[in-house]
Amino acid sequence: MNEKLKERIAALVKLGEQLRSDVEMDNVIARAASMNPWFTEEFCRKAMNAVIDRMLTAERLQQWLSRYEISEDDKPAKTVGIIMAGNLPLVGFHDFLCVYISGNNIRVKPSGKDEVLFPYIYEKLMQIDPMLRDRSSIIDRLKDFDAVIATGSNNTNRYFEYYFRDQPSILRKNRNSVAILTGSETDEELYGLADDIFMYFGFGCRNVSKLYVPQDYDITRLFPYFERYKWMHNHTKYMNNYDYNRTLLLMNSTIHLADEIIMIQENPAIGSPVSVLYFERYNDINSLSDSIISKKDDIQCIVSSKSIVSKDNIIDIVKFGYTQRPELWDYADNVDTLSFLFSLKS
């Protein structure tokens, strides 16, 4: 490991320490929440704590980087453009972190939905590592780059594929996560499932949008575990989605179950609208595994208490309650971002 990489690791660890004790953090989070109603203070704080505790500690950074053969040579840096999504607070930070740790130059186009949290962390890191000011910038329009990492919807991904067709790239589109229930889940696991479904209002690719349940499973038994998220009933934007989707289901006479904050509908699709949770019944767990693998390009994580399809290395198997606690090496779309970035300098 070369000295400059060690310095970058030390800078990230120091960043984590400063953020952990930052007396301004409450004000920063309040400002972020005031600018984007979907970024509640609770969710902003969860996102910030996830960055601090799971990405900016020496132990986790060393564990992450130990997976790679990193050249001792400090080869010329490339310029990498990052187009960040804005569906979750700080959702683009991991991409920034990867480019920073790789030693490449950085051009960041943040989402207009996340105009407070990332710039705040970015400024903090530049104070710790002044060299970052010369090798990075926040921009409005991406230009003069050698490679790109872009995250967006399925529609914007088609634009990305055309516009960045001549550059090395990682281009991400919509994905969702699913959970497989067997009927033997503990209370703790089902409370964890509620987090997997509702955290960040379900906007993330790691949020569970679809359940697979046994044929005789009573889906109504899940409602009590969702009680902790009843506060969403008072969230105007979330309830606008709820009312709209409930109206559609009622107008179309679509069979569904509902409580104050969610509708559960039997549907073979993977991705469900905000405030709607799809489910599908299965007979045989092995056949179900094969079916899920066939849909791997639409799935980010599989949540299960069992080692189902554990031999498949493309889709994560995640414990209940852990979808929004990814490690540094849990890459979006299961594409190793850091390997991609190291290869640019080879």
Description:
The chain has 346 residues and is an alpha/beta fold. The chain has two domains: 3-174, 3-Layer(aba) Sandwich (Aldehyde Dehydrogenase, Chain A, domain 1); 176-318, Aldehyde Dehydrogenase, Chain A, domain 2 (3-Layer(aba) Sandwich), CATH 3.40.309.10. It is 38% helix and 16% strand. The protein contains twelve helices and twelve strands. The strands form two sheets. The protein has a seven-stranded mixed β-sheet. It has a five-stranded parallel β-sheet with strand order 3-2-1-4-5, with helices on both faces. Helix 8 (154-163) links the parallel strand 4 and strand 5 (169-172). It is globular, with a radius of gyration of 21 Å. The two termini are 15 Å apart. The model has no long low-confidence stretch (mean pLDDT 92).
Class of secondary structure makeup: alpha/beta
The largest sheet, given as strand count, sense and whether it forms a barrel, is: 7 strands, mixed
Q: Tell me the helix content.
A: 25-40%
Number of domains: 2
Query: What share of residues are in beta strands?
Result: 15-25%
Could you name the CATH homologous superfamily of the largest domain? Aldehyde Dehydrogenase, Chain A, domain 1
Number of strands: 12
